[in-house]
Amino acid sequence: MNKKLAAALSGGAVLVLALSGCSDDEGNKVDDWAKTFCDQAKPQIQKRADAHQIIISTAADSKPAEIQAADSKAFQDIADADRALAKAVESAGAPPVENGEKVQQDAIKELNATAVAYEGLKKQVDALDPTNQQKFADGLQDVADGLTKIEKMDQNALSKLEEGELGQAMAKQPGCQKPTASASPKAGSTASGSPDKAADASAKPSTKATPTKTEE
Questions:
Q1: Nearest Cα residue to 62 out of 189, 209, 213
Q2: 7-64 tens-digit pLDDT
Q3: For 126, phi and psi rounded to 5 degrees?
Q4: Does the pTM of the predicted model rise above 0.70?
Q5: 118-160, pLDDT tens digit by residue?
Q6: H-type helices in 26-99, by residue range?
Q7: Which three-class secondary structure string do you get for 133-158?
């Protein structure tokens, strides 16, 4: 049942930068801004990565109630992380680039809007009835469709920050590097196995419940 959610996250935005370095004369101010932001962003980027992994890991061998609880917490964690990232952008101030104030305000607005959207998904998941397997599966499909749209919002949230010399400066900062998810995927999940098999397993939960998931 979590196949679509896992698929939506498999290529989703994790606010990871992979650009070349910058050595312009004005690079010091840009680098200082990037360090200020990325130092604050690091734990939130990690939190998002862990939440994404929880959703992916719960795609197989889990009962509806377990899927519901995991996805609900993951969506709330991502929402909290996005709000914290918005505060990090605000705290860092307007970046020292062209139209820096607008770039800052747009990022704050979009991150907060994405947080609200993820909380909407959490409410959808919380409202599902895990005792009715078919209705739960249908409801989770609707959640997955919503997640696909929100992931596009997420990708746009910091897109302006990731452009040009500012993006290059951020790419050099350890805090903005790709995190390693703390949560380990379960055997047979979409993170390490066939998505179709994972979907089949979660659509027809086994009587052998998978141990509870761990998180950071």
A1: 209
A2: 655 544 444 443 333 444 455 899 999 999 999 999 999 999 999 999 888 866 688 9
A3: -60, -30
A4: yes
A5: 999 999 999 999 999 899 989 999 999 999 888 888 778 888 7
A6: 27-57, 64-92
A7: HHHHHHHHHHHHHHHHHHHHHHHHHC
7 DSSP assignment: H
Question: Among 133, 130, 126, which Cα is nearest to 204's?
Answer: 133
Calculate the alpha carbon distances from 109 to 83, 104, 115, 153, 182 in Å.
10, 9, 10, 11, 29
| 92 Cβ neighbours under 8 A, 6+ residues apart | 33, 36, 37, 40, 104
Nearest to 92 by CA among 103, 82, 77: 103
Burial of 27 (0-12, 13-18, 19+ CB in 10 A): middle
Name residue 100's amino acid.
G
Give which of 82, 83, 43, 10 is closest to 174, Cα–Cα.
43
The amino acid at 168: Q
Of residues 52, 126, 127, 124, the one with CA closest to residue 82:
52
